[in-house]
Amino acid sequence: MKPLPLPRRRTPVMFSRPVELFAVLGLISLLTFSPDEMILSDDSVPVADEQTDETTTERELFTGKVVLLKDALAERDLRVAEEMADQAVLETPEGDLIPILADWRGRAFFQDERLRDRKVELVAYRREHLPYLQVLMVFTFDEDGTRQYTDYWCDVCSIPMYEIKACECCQGDIRLRFQPQDLPNYLHLSDSTE
Questions:
Q1: 68 in a structural domain
Q2: Which backbone phi and psi does 34 adopt, to 5 degrees?
Q3: Which of 12, 75, 102, 116 lies 20 to 30 A from 164 at CA?
Q4: Does residue 15 form part of some domain?
Q5: How many domains is the chain built from?
Q6: Confidence of residue 85 (pLDDT cuts 50, 70, 90)
Q7: Cβ distance 127 to 134 under 8 Å?
Q8: 10 within some domain
Q9: What confidence category does residue 32 fall into, taking pLDDT thresholds of 50, 70 and 90?
Q10: Which of the residue ranges 25-34, 41-50, 53-62 would you say has the lowest mean pLDDT?
Q11: Which residues contact 71 (CB under 8 A, 6 or more apart)?
């Protein structure tokens, strides 16, 4: 005796195409909210002239040298506790100390002493009400005074990185890389800064 064939399970037509599935899910979600929940209040609508987005913040050029805050304060006869030992700051030619945010780009100054105590130009944001410098591009200078774009590089994968760590692709070693390069055109610099 032959076994009975199992009935073929048929996918409903509306779920056979992803677009239709998402349309049904969207309709279901609309039906689960009351009309009052779907109306936006006036305070939930963003105001167009507020500068809340990173892209609306002006990118600027900051010059000086990056030092550790503890060392900079010691030169000014101020003693601080060890908790401030590793904070990197930009010391401007005028003597101002601007703390550097330890994010995806600024973190290299905390990790790599080769980037400190040398002349730098940093393309960065400085947000209102925050003292921190959010670094986007790092330029250092060689012995001849040539401006060089500075990052880290994996020779195997040919990809740039911005802090000391294993290559994100091959997990191999990376190296500090210097490339002669002009400042970006969007900075609109006067001739005196070039």
A1: yes
A2: -80, 160
A3: 75
A4: no
A5: 1
A6: confident
A7: yes
A8: no
A9: low
A10: 41-50
A11: none
Give alpha helix (H) positions in the chain.
18-32, 35-38, 69-75, 107-111
Q: How many angstroms separate the Cα of 122 from the Cα of each of 101, 135, 138, 160?
A: 12, 6, 5, 18
Per-residue exposure over 78-105, b if at least 16 CB sit within 10 Å of its own CB, e if not: eeeeeeeeebbbbbeeeeebbebbbeeb
Q: Examine residue 109 and state whether it is found in any structural domain, yes or no.
A: yes
Give the tokens for residue 150: 């500075």
* Residue span of the structural domain in which 91 resides: 59-145
Task: Give this prediction's pTM.
Answer: 0.68
Q: Which amino acid is at 116?
A: R
Summary mean pLDDT of the chain:
82
Do 184 and 136 form a contact (C-beta atoms < 8 A)?
A: no
Round to whole Å and give the CA distance between 27 and 82. Answer: 58
Q: What is the DSSP letter of 103?
A: S
CATH code: domain of residue 134: 2.40.50
Residue listed under structure tokens 């002349």: 119
The CA distances from residue 71 to 66, 96, 111, in Å, are 11, 14, 16
